[in-house]
Amino acid sequence: MSTATSGTLNHVAWVLRGNPLTAVAAVGVALLCVLAAIGPWIVPYDPIASNVAIALQAPSAAHWAGTDQLGRDVFSRTVVAARLDLMIAASAVSLSFVVGAVIGSICGYVGGRLDRIVGRFVDVLMAFPLFVLAMAMVAALGNRIENIVIATAFINLPFYIRFARAEVNVRRNAGWVESARACGDSHLSVILRFLLPNILPAMAVQISLNLGWAVLNAAGLSFIGLGVQQPTPEWGIMVAEGARFISTGNWWLVACPGFALMVAVLFFNLLGDGLRDILDPRMRT
């Protein structure tokens, strides 16, 4: 094992010892991903099959999280919903990361009028409440899954454009960038081969934080009726439906999906904090 690799592993171990919640978050995110992948095959009941004869039953040995107003198993629906919510979040964040990183890197490298125009666009975009902007986009485009992904990606763009622009602007006159240009690399090649890979570790923190926010955004849109529609299992829909029955004492309808949503967002946020400590050069001193 090389000295650099050994040093990196020692640093990661040191950060995890100081902040064990990072390890818990990493394991939690991994379990969520596994659950999303295999959930439909391990749940005890069909998540969309209704049976009104057992509607609104409290948690029991047969139904661990109870049943909803149509007799559907709440636990099964919560587990299956993880795949859709995580898929929407991952797709939206991936799209916004790729587009935002490229645009921000070009602006930070080129500067001038292009940088000012894009900067003003980002300022205008961030002047709006982002969730309200996502609501407007989904309402205009239609509440389909692909439109939820597009809306969530669009409102995440400013974070990546600003971050990439600032990081590239600091590095564009560095010695190793000048060397690449002196060797005949084109400006586009310098951006894609040298500058973008150099800022990716720092952007990993933003990706993790945005994943949690994207899950919450997708659930929020579904909660107000602008996201995924019935009978598809989705955490936001389940919480919205269950909220109507809280006053009658049927608390389990929102407990399971609400807890899953809270845990997913918490794990992504904790993982982002841990990645910040791991990737921060100042933590190595």
Automatic annotation (TrEMBL):
Source species: Variovorax guangxiensis
Domain annotation ABC transmembrane type-1: ranges: 82-272
Protein name (record): ABC transporter permease
One GO BP annotation of this record: transmembrane transport
Pfam families, per database record: BPD_transp_1, OppC_N
Keywords: Cell membrane, Membrane, Transmembrane, Transmembrane helix, Transport
InterPro entries registered for this protein in UniProt: BP-dependent_transpt_permease, MetI-like, MetI-like_sf, OppC_N
Compartments where located: Cell membrane
Transmembrane regions listed in the UniProt entry: 21-43, 86-109, 121-142, 148-164, 211-231, 251-272
Any one annotated GO CC term: plasma membrane
UniProt similarity note: Belongs to the binding-protein-dependent transport system permease family.
Membrane topology of the entry: Multi-pass membrane protein
